[in-house]
Write a structure and sequence with these properties.
alpha+beta, Jelly Rolls, 8-stranded mixed sheet, 4-stranded antiparallel sheet, about 20% strand, disordered N terminus, binds 2-oxoglutaric acid, binds fe (ii) ion, metal ion binding
């Protein structure tokens, strides 16, 4: 059979995308609504537009082996940390090396701060479409923006989600954050920064390093918040809320409401991460796997689509600045006798470029940097 004619065309915000049979036009038309998947739901869509339909290989299947009962992402209790530090460090080491994920409880972030961040997320996404449209864009230089699928034009199938994105850097003017969630977002950020500092200390100690070791590597100079809104999906069996991926950053802290759907890859199974009231989900990103020489792992995770919603999550990603000149490679002090570095040294900007060129639903670029 002759291959379908394929051309390439320039698309907004991303590189060239192979075009065939009107798919690009559909993507452009969806993007031009500036109303995201919430807009589709509000307009009464009952059949998924084909840009959201994933190939069966990328969807959960009844044939997938169910994870054995009892397999559960570790929950780490931070209460009384001053007296239990060694024990907690041990748990963080175990969780980061075998799961790449853990849930923190008694972490000191007040529940009302987390709830306000989730409700701020909801208030923003439930604004009038014309309000949200004012900040709908895909410009890398914008600190605050709203969009559906940051990888829309490079990925094979779009996810059923909209996102409010905020990059906290020196150039952010807090007034740029939509007023319906400004206060909640700034308070959430402040607490997440403090918690991330503690987590970086625990991770340093778990690697046998000085408490401030990772902090001094400028691994978290940039933090960006993504407030995802996943409306109830009319045909959840055909799509994903978030395709499989590992996070191309150093560390992620995430809170979610009670709908669930997050799964992590562990020992060949997709394991549910059930929402634990008050817990903050922590996961190791690709850069931490690289500098720890695989002592900590950045694992694939995904979010299943559901007929119920809206699912809300607010993730805070910690990463170096993209103009950071440090070349990140395996930390020499942690290499054991005869252990060789598994990765070459890399500029963070080069790493993120590899990720952004492909989008979600693909293997991590980490393999490209192995020695
Ligand atoms: O919404 C979630 O729970 C996960 C989102 C996620 O994995 C991501 O944005 O990287
Ligand atoms: Fe993620």
């Amino acid at each position: 059979m002759a291959a379908a004619a394929t051309t390439t065309a320039a698309v907004p915000g991303n590189g060239p995308h192979p075009v065939s049979d009107g798919r690009l036009e559909e993507l452009l038309a969806f993007d031009a609504t500036k109303a995201g998947v919430k807009g589709l739901v509000d307009s009464g869509t009952t059949e998924l537009p084909r840009i959201f339909i994933h190939s069966p290989d990328d969807l959960p299947s009844p044939k997938d082996a169910a994870a054995p009962a009892g397999l559960q992402v570790p929950i780490i209790d931070l209460s009384g940390l001053a007296h239990r530090r060694e024990e907690v460090v041990g748990r963080v080491r175990e969780a980061s090396s075998s799961w790449g994920f853990f849930q923190l409880v008694n972490h000191g972030v007040p529940p009302d701060i987390v709830e306000a961040a989730l409700q701020g997320n909801r208030r923003f996404h439930e604004l009038e479409p014309s309000e949200k449209a004012k900040i709908y864009n895909r410009e890398a230089r914008m600190n605050v923006k709203y969009l559906s699928n940051n990888d829309l034009f490079v990925t094979r199938a779009a996810n059923w989600r909209d996102t409010l994105y905020c990059c906290f850097g020196a150039s952010l003017n807090p007034q740029e954050i939509p007023s319906v969630c400004r206060e909640a977002t700034l308070a959430y950020d402040e607490h997440m920064v403090r918690l991330a500092e503690l987590v970086f200390e625990l991770l340093s100690e778990a690697l046998g390093l000085r408490r401030d070791y990772l902090k001094r590597l400028n691994l978290s100079s940039t933090r960006s918040m993504t407030a995802h809104y996943y409306p109830a999906c009319p045909q959840p069996e055909l799509t994903m809320c978030t395709s499989r991926h590992s996070d191309p950053i150093c560390l992620t802290l995430l809170v979610e409401n009670a709908f669930g759907g997050l799964q992590v890859r562990h020992k060949g199974y997709w394991v549910d991460v059930p929402p634990v009231p008050g817990a903050i989900v922590v996961n190791v990103g690709d850069l931490l796997q690289l500098i720890s020489n695989d002592k900590f792992i950045s694992v694939e995770h995904r979010v299943l689509a559901s007929g119920q919603g809206p699912r809300l999550s607010v993730a805070m990603f910690f990463a170096p600045n993209t103009d950071e000149k440090t070349l990140y490679g395996p930390i020499e002090e942690i290499l054991l006798d005869a252990e060789v570095p598994k990765y070459r040294r890399v500029l963070y900007a080069d790493y993120i470029k590899c990720f952004s060129g492909r989008g979600f639903g693909r293997d991590s670029p980490l393999k490209q940097f192995t020695l």
